[in-house]
């Protein structure tokens, strides 16, 4: 912007910043789902509502520079709802770019940093212009604006409208991808000595639990999800993911974003959509108190429920490692079995059986 945007107070800006952190993962999920289901009226309505809420919160918190961006996206989505526009690749990229730039701008302003490089003036102009175009010219102009703002042209519309089936990869391609995912996971494991062996333990527990239950989850997709479910933690300061329960409210909000980052990478790779959904949902809880979507019961994928158990088991093991390996396993099992709100009871039984086998082998 030609002049730095003003805001009412740093406290109000911080409040809006936290709200934006909450909205971002859901918006990214909705856009990703619209990529596969571009005519889904419910998804479009939910996305419209998310930007409407951003606009309302920005007004309430006095962060007024955000309002025209959210309003412009609302106008585009209103036309999608009315059927006068069709959802396409470059429009998805524009929406995500808008969200990214708003997050970066608010973060920079909270830290008293310059935001000129974000080209918010141009982005606002682009959104306003695109909201007035017809379907025939919208895609071309959208891709031109994306190239102006990022240096890269947007994708062609047909490429995004097509479904990406989960079995398009050859066996060799899947194996290559899994090696890549494992490599990423090991980078996090190596950041702290107490994480040594974590990936191998989690993978065995997850695959064995799935097998004990009759293998309802594709084991290849589950393996990818095990590797990637905590990838987003690498993007957070170590102070957050090692601090445990002593987190501030802002740190908790930042922590709650990590499933969307690992999921987002998988979502953008052909053949890993099932794993992406597992990663996104692995902190959901049967009673709806989890995050990021507040899903309940059968709305949570079985693979995500396995990940939740494995993740919690590892966390309790780490917390009680000073008790010795055998006692920490027993403590972890006791805590998991006592947490009927956090885990699906149908998965606790096969998980218990796997851990009993593990103890019997010691």
From TrEMBL:
Domain of life: Bacteria
GO terms of biological process kind: phosphorelay signal transduction system
Family annotation (SUPFAM superfamilies): HD-domain/PDEase-like (SSF109604), Histidine-containing phosphotransfer domain, HPT domain (SSF47226)
Residue ranges occupied by any HD-GYP domain in the UniProt entry: 170-362
SMART domains the UniProt entry points to: HPT
Keywords, in A-Z order: Phosphoprotein, Two-component regulatory system
InterPro entries attached to this UniProt entry: Cyclic_di-GMP/3'3'-cGAMP_PDE, HD/PDEase_dom, HD_GYP_dom, HPT_dom_sf, Sig_transdc_His_kin_Hpt_dom
Pfam families for the chain: HD_5, Hpt
Name of the protein in its database record: Hpt domain-containing protein
């Amino acid at each position: 912007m030609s002049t730095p945007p003003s805001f009412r107070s740093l406290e109000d800006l911080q409040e809006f910043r936290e709200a934006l952190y909450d909205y971002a993962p859901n918006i990214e999920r909705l856009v990703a789902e619209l990529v596969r289901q571009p005519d889904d009226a419910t998804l479009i309505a939910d996305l419209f509502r998310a930007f409407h809420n951003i606009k309302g919160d920005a007004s309430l918190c006095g962060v007024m520079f955000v309002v025209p961006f959210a309003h412009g996206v609302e106008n585009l989505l209103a036309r999608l709802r009315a059927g006068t526009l069709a959802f396409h690749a470059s429009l998805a990229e524009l929406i995500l770019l808008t969200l990214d730039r708003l997050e970066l701008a608010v973060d920079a302003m909270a830290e008293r940093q310059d935001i000129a490089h974000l080209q918010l003036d141009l982005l606002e102009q682009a959104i306003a212009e695109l909201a007035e175009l017809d379907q025939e010219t919208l895609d071309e102009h959208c891709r031109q604006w994306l190239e102006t703002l990022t240096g890269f042209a947007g994708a062609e519309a047909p490429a995004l409208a097509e479904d990406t089936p989960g079995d398009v990869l050859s066996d060799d391609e899947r194996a290559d991808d899994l090696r890549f995912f494992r490599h990423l996971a090991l980078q996090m494991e190596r950041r702290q000595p107490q994480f040594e062996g974590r990936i191998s333990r989690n993978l065995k527990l997850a695959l064995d639990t799935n097998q004990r239950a009759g293998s309802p989850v594709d084991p290849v997709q589950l393996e990818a999800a095990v590797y990637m479910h905590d990838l987003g933690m690498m993007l957070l300061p170590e102070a957050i993911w090692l601090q445990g329960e002593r987190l501030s409210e802002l740190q908790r909000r930042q922590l709650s974003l990590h499933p969307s980052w690992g999921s987002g990478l998988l979502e953008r790779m052909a053949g890993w959509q099932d794993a992406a959904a597992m990663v996104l949902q692995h902190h959901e809880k049967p009673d709806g108190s989890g995050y990021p979507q507040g899903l309940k019961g059968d709305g949570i994928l079985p693979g995500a429920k396995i990940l939740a158990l494995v993740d919690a088991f590892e966390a309790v093991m780490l917390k009680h490692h000073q008790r010795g390996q055998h006692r920490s396993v027993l403590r972890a099992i006791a805590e998991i079995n006592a947490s009927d709100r956090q885990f699906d009871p149908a998965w606790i039984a096969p998980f218990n059986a796997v851990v009993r086998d593990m103890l019997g082998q010691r």
